[in-house]
Amino acid sequence: MPPKLGIVAGGTALPGLLARSAIEGGRKVFIIALEGQAEPEVVGTFDHAWVRMGAVGKALEHLRREGVEEIVLAGPVTRPTLRELVPDRRAARFLATGVLSRGDDGLLSEIVRFLEMEEGFRVVGIPDILKDAAAPPGVLSDRAPDSRETTDIRRGMAVLDALDPIDVGQAVVVQNGVVLGIEAVEGTDALICRAGELARPGTGPVLVKFSKAGQELRTDQPVTGPGTVASCVKAGFSGIAVEAGKSLIVDLPNTIAAANRHSLFVTSLSRQDTRT
Hints:
- The chain has 2 domains: 5-129, 3-Layer(aba) Sandwich (Rossmann fold); 138-275, Cytidine Deaminase, domain 2, CATH 3.40.140.
- 38% of the residues lie in helices and 19% in strands.
- The protein has helices spanning 14-24, 40-43, 56-65, 82-85, 89-95, 104-118, 126-129, 147-163, 188-198, 217-220, 226-234, 252-261; strands at 5-9, 29-34, 48-51, 70-74, 122-123, 138-139, 171-175, 178-182, 206-209, 223-224, 239-243, 248-249, 265-269.
- The strands form 3 sheets. The protein has a 6-stranded mixed β-sheet, sandwiched between helices. Strands 3-2-1-4-5 form a 5-stranded parallel β-sheet, sandwiched between helices.
- Helix 9 (188-198) runs parallel beside helix 11 and helix 11 (226-234) runs parallel beside helix 12 (252-261).
């Protein structure tokens, strides 16, 4: 029998999609639902326990009691302040290493090390559970980006390349060569909303979302889905560019169908494609 899967659930529908996929594949599943992050309607139909983010000891106790062997982290999580965390003893020991002062990738890499090296779990990536989630290469929508939009994609990728060494974010928004916004702690949807307010008349902005060089992809792969498309449509964007094979597209058929309804392009490229 496949090892039991523990899902540490943040926001969006992703944790539920993972749980259903794992169960269909013959796995048993248990969800650690993070208070203030996970959505009750998503996790409620599965075996789960609600745990506040600072209660690491309680979360580990649940996982061990349930016989979990493998863990996947799923869904966006708003990074809390130390005051918001109210860490228990186990969390305080982890935080004493200074992980909250690191970028997202540094923090998530340390979480993987902690779970595997100190606690004995195996951390798996979302594609290990959702087999067809990785973005296939090529133009995925009915509409392909035009020459101006392609130039904006390349501009966005150049910005992300420059930001790689300082571990900032995975996404940037560009319109007519002007950078309208760079993803930071607020997350992609908030970036889209903020950049939409800065957009100029004419061809809409382009969202470029790629992984960072050397990123711990088991815990923080770039994710796009129907919600991303809805946010882009509302903000007046013209399209989305993601990284082939490394970005995840949740519910690909409905994501592309939504993009096509609004003439939004979705294209999946390699880093090399953006430099030619």
